Task: inverse folding
């Protein structure tokens, strides 16, 4: 639609490139935020950061390869309905964002997609107080014991030998043990913060990490607990 006020901004980027990009990005931001607000991303919809992360991803897609998508858009005849075109980008970015979350596990031949998270054990989770406190204590003790054993094995036998020994003893893939051995302190500090009920951005700020580093640590913790057969909360 030619009367959409965003069209001149898109055409400016197609003709002038990076010089016109800041104006387009500023004009798009409130439109994309509103579109991202309505995306079906499960429990991630409750997070204020989710909408902004999706918008950041959309803008990165539009900026990619010297605005390739924008050049293609402006070359199409007749021109598509602009908001519908944008919603496709928002939808794709939202799906990637959800699938990239350590709290989302895609399905396989045996089961469907599901949400899992150590955050279900946090102080903000809805559960009976005694049961919740017991679960928090159990998972923290379990990981603390594994971290101590990994650290001791690494000191006694060297990292590579320790990884092999623990993988054999625990009957799990070496990948899980390698992550544990190389991230012992981070595993404990991130886990303690999750069980305290902090959000990923809050944990990142507290521990001087990026949010992505926190997300990966939680994912690795989930993988380790599942590999060891620890009873997980989730669903």
Result:
């Amino acid at each position: 639609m030619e009367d959409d006020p965003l069209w001149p901004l898109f055409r400016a980027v197609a003709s002038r490139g990076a010089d016109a990009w800041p104006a387009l990005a500023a004009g798009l931001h409130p439109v994309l935020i509103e579109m991202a607000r309505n995306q079906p991303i499960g429990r991630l919809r409750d997070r204020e950061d989710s909408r902004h992360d999706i918008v950041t991803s959309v803008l990165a897609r539009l900026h990619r390869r010297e605005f390739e998508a924008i050049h293609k858009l402006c070359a199409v005849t007749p021109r598509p309905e602009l908001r519908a075109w944008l919603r496709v980008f928002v939808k794709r970015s939202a799906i990637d964002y959800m699938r990239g979350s350590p709290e989302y596990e895609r399905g396989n031949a045996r089961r469907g997609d599901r949400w899992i998270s150590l955050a279900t054990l946090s102080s903000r989770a809805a559960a009976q107080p005694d049961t919740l406190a017991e679960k928090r204590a159990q998972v923290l003790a379990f990981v603390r014991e594994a971290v101590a054993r990994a650290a001791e094995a690494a000191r006694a036998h060297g990292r590579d030998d320790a990884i092999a020994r623990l993988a054999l003893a625990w009957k799990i893939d070496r990948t899980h043990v390698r992550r544990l051995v190389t991230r012992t302190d981070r595993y404990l500090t991130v886990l303690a913060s999750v069980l305290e009920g902090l959000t990923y951005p809050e944990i990142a700020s507290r521990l001087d990490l990026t949010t992505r580093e926190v997300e990966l640590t939680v994912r690795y913790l989930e993988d380790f607990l599942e590999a060891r057969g620890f009873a997980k909360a989730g669903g």
